[in-house]
Amino acid sequence: MRLASVADRQHGSQSADRGGLLRPPAESFESTEGTPPPIAIKPKDSEASCYQGLIEDGGRPVCSIQDISHLLASPTASYEAVLPWLSDHPDSEDGVGEIKTVFSRQFTRWWDFRKSQWHNRGISDSEEGFSAFLEASRSRWERIGVHEMVSDPDFEGTIRRQWQQKPAAQQLPDGQGFPAYSEAVKRRLTPHHFTRPLRLKKNPRQQTIWTNWLEYLNYEQWWSETLTAVAESLVEEQYHQPWKRLLKAPRCPSKEARGSNSTKAVSSLTASRSIQTRPGPKAVELAKRLEKRLEAAEADLNATNKTIDDFIQETALYRRAETAAYFQKLRVKWAVEEARLMEIEMSQQRRTAKSNTKVDTKENKKRRRDDNAEIPPEPRPKRAKPGDKGKSAVSNTTPDKPQARRSSKRLAELKNKAPPQTGF
Question: How far apart are CA 221 and CA 231, in angstroms?
Fold first, then answer.
């Protein structure tokens, strides 16, 4: 169906070379070759969407979109920024194509890693992992604007097939569970001496961005170890022995061609042809000798070319393995550098947060002082005298002192009142 053809063509099928050990899953990128998809998609839009998708899921693009535009527009620009995501020299045909698709290949690689997270936890059939991939894929295509493809009833089935076809990247022998995998990851990361801890969880969707990146670094480093082992296993048979055969091959010209070189051979051929136009037995004999020398020189040249061609063919597999291991090491180095940058970024964020907290605290204290200055202090009650039991200290502090006036009036009335009569 049209949807399947578009998505599969964009996802890219892995050939034996690209899907094998000599080419890790990163090379299963969306190829721009072949028949154009029925839905027209601009490569720049696809790359920009993958760039955004990486950031949304915690990935880190190797460079900015502007950097890629600069690289493609300026042949003399430095390719160092994107080297970790190439598999050939930048000036080669493959290299230029990979620069154009660097973000879509990163996006695919990142979700290859995401699939491996579940697989190495023993839950590769997790619906939660697939649901995350489905949502990321849907967002990717919606950003491009192909809403018709996303709304197609077959969209989910196509994305599920892509999820199932992703490589598992089994890092430990079968039967070893999540605890063994966690220890293996920690051992692989220990030489880097990161200051922040690694906290792997059974459900990778519950991990922090930092832990996910460290686990991704482990993923790339595991691939580097695997590819290096493949190259080392081929070096004796696929390189050393062909090299020895090349050195043992005869390099001296044959007796017939000795003393001649390409210039002499051409001169001999010219001389023989001119002599053939002259009559006489001596001229014919000389022509035959020159012809024989030329044939010998040509035979030596053909033998040398064959020896070189044999060496190139016999070492092709090793050279591919060595190249893959080389670029994979660059990718690991890049991932480590990104982790260092993340540590710096998180430290800066923590300092900024602390600084903001201190500023807020000072402002709150100042605000409380200002609020207190606006409210007049309440009067302190006077302490009652020792002999004035039962009297309220507060009542003595009122301005008008009404109780004092009532006491004085009562005393005057008692003085003016006549004394009572006795019974004498």
Answer: 15
